[in-house]
Please model this.
Amino acid sequence: MKEKLTIVKVGGAVVEDELQLAQLLRDFSAIEGRKVLVHGGGRRATKMAERLGIETKMVDGRRITDADMLEVVTMVYGGLVNKHVVAELQAIGVDAIGLCGADGDIIRSVKRPPKNGIDYGFVGDVKQVDGAKIAHFIEKNLVPTIAPLTHDGQGNILNTNADTMASETAKALAQLYDVTLIFSFEKRGVLSNPDDDESVIPVITRSDFERYKADGTISGGMLPKIENALAAVEAGVSQVIITLATAIDGQHGTIIK
Amino acid sequence: MKEKLTIVKVGGAVVEDELQLAQLLRDFSAIEGRKVLVHGGGRRATKMAERLGIETKMVDGRRITDADMLEVVTMVYGGLVNKHVVAELQAIGVDAIGLCGADGDIIRSVKRPPKNGIDYGFVGDVKQVDGAKIAHFIEKNLVPTIAPLTHDGQGNILNTNADTMASETAKALAQLYDVTLIFSFEKRGVLSNPDDDESVIPVITRSDFERYKADGTISGGMLPKIENALAAVEAGVSQVIITLATAIDGQHGTIIK
Model:
């Protein structure tokens, strides 16, 4: 039987808020067994870009990353946010190690080609995750704390979506561990009624999803999120949990399996 | 017999210059055997601070690091410079892993108390280096690429002098390896005549140093540099080399032993 491993993805909104972040890191430290943290930092990057007079352009929620913006995300994700999170985790007894995809060549990507007239710039789509290398850190009782940056193997850092990095890392590590992937989220889980925070759907399987999609219970931005989660499950991840950032204990939210 | 390990320290001036940096990294990649890179980044930090309207204050060549400046150095050293260097090393076949002192708790420091009316702010003096942890990465054929940031174990990142980090890392690793520490420098080595670039002193021992100090051959800023190098040697480092950034092959410069 494979050993359990929990991967938690925390987004930019939580990273931005010192109190929320401290709470999330405490909850993360309480998770038993092997673990990995993947963080975003988009809001910090947007603020820093603004201070530097660099305009933030988004298309479909994705950041257009020109050379100036690449500098901003490299320093904000890889430096400001990552080292802050690592130092905070160390202070509460978690032996965190900050990594981006370039470190130890753990996550390599390819620069996204322009498509439909949109050039995302220095954005990387994940090509390969070295699960064995990441597992090596984990087996040394280190807790990989991953910033949403990858590299192309040719010397370029590329901005990469943190959700995707979490999913791809989960898939790679599912070869070696019994992986639970937790996406921290601004809602309690996937809701059957978007206006009712209590209407959390406890479990969604592929067949449930097809039904909810057909009858309109799930729509909009939740569709790709759940599709990605199901793809991770179909690639070997044991379960994906979508839950509040204050409820990452595995006992709350929607389980996708 | 201990295995050889080379630690190269590269300063902010080289890091700032793309061509010089690329050359140095190529030379670094050509060094045989186990190795570690320690980098600065002060000039980049000063430029970024300026763009953010943050004034750089130096006392005796050391940066006063208030909360705003700490943010700048954390993102510039830990993110912008470190990830750039790591990606470049990966591109030339060096399996670099970017680390600051907080990562894996490898280098812990204490905040420097104000002294003689000078408060350096968030500056850390190295307290302990976990040589075994760093060696563990080295034994996995990874090349630690260290940014000049440490942590205090209480959640705070502290700005730390890169020369000191290189020396302290060298001392800790000297327990496990036959360590050569190379300081890349703007001169060919320690000069017996500051106006003659050809007057490199090939070897300096403790007794040579005392003699050169007494007769005035070595003076000013070189004194603490050589004093630190001799202290490293006396703590077990096999040799310290002070040389040009374009001559880090161990065959040039001044050897302090």
